[in-house]
Structure to design on (306 residues):
């Protein structure tokens, strides 16, 4: 029997709205710091395209690192298993922008979701695409079945002006031969990738292929093979929240991905994708309310992969 998701979502939403909203909006990208920190949206889309939402779920926000999942899916489909020669699949146990492991690991990032890994993915995009930005947007627009997905040029420019750590990582990986293009071009693409804006509703629909063995349920288009989807979900579970991945898995029990814009997506394989947005981040850089919401949601529904 299907649960009454709308009722569960609305109740948890109302309960959390009445509670303390801890954490801090990040200020290291000045353009992101202007957001209203009390925004809060939730949307779940199931494989039959039923959609259940609460709050600001139709408002766009900066999806930041959530876009790394789109980029990985796009590149993995093209490069197949050769991709893993350039990026590993191990949790880093470190902050998303940490550089410390790169030297010991000879310039091979621990996984595609830390910044170093996403920079390598962007480098691959520059190698395999004629126009990576357009091709990436087209890939996402096909998944949302809407043309209304764009980069935010102001956010990209704001991030580019503050990209000293990413530039450091990129140059360092280039010294090991694991970046093939000019570091400036790789960073420019990476900052655009992070600047993509979407709503919770668009996010929960666009990631349904990860809940459906690689197939987009409405168009029936096979986006990725089921074996690749198994692998991406495994990396999401073990690496999607940086050094809080264990905690997310422990509290929520679903593969997922966060972004410093306050968004989180989580996948319940064979069933649905749920997206949450609340801009205030905890000390590990993940949405405070987003984590609380999903913990409560999987507790009340009893639905997790475990
Ligand atoms: O590279 C940066 O600093 C950010 N744009 C990273 C984005 C992000 O969301 C990391 N994680 N949660």
């Amino acid at each position: 029997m299907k649960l009454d998701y709308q009722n569960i979502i609305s109740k948890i939403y109302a309960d959390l709205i009445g509670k303390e909203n801890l954490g801090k909006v990040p200020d290291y990208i000045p353009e992101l710091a202007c957001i209203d920190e009390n925004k809060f949206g939730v949307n779940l889309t199931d494989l039959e395209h039923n959609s259940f939402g609460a709050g600001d779920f139709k408002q766009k926000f900066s999806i930041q690192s959530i876009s790394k999942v789109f980029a990985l899916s796009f590149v993995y489909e093209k490069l197949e298993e050769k991709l893993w020669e350039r990026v590993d699949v191990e949790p880093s146990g470190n902050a998303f922008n940490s550089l410390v492991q790169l030297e010991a690991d000879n310039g091979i990032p621990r996984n595609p979701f830390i910044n170093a890994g996403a920079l390598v993915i962007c480098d691959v995009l520059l190698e395999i695409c004629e126009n990576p930005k357009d091709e990436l947007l087209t890939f996402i627009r096909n998944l949302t079945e809407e043309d209304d997905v764009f980069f935010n040029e102001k956010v990209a420019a704001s991030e580019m002006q503050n990209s000293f750590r990413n530039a450091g990582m990129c140059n360092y990986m280039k010294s090991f031969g694991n970046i093939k293009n000019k570091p400036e071009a790789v960073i420019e693409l990476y900052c655009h990738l992070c600047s993509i804006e979407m709503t919770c509703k668009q996010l929960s629909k666009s990631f349904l292929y990860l809940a459906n063995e690689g197939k987009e349920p409405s168009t029936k288009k096979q986006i990725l093979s089921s074996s690749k989807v198994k692998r991406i979900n495994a990396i999401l579970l073990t690496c999607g929240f940086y050094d809080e991945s264990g905690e997310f898995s422990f509290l929520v029990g679903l593969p997922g991905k966060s972004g410093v814009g306050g968004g989180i997506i989580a996948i319940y394989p064979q069933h649905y994708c749920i997206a949450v947005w609340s801009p205030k981040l905890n000390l590990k850089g993940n949405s405070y309310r987003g984590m609380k919401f999903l913990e409560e949601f999987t507790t009340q529904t009893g639905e997790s992969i475990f």
The beta strands are 41-46, 51-55, 61-62, 150-151, 196-198, 256-258, 263-268, 272-277. The chain has a mean pLDDT of 96.
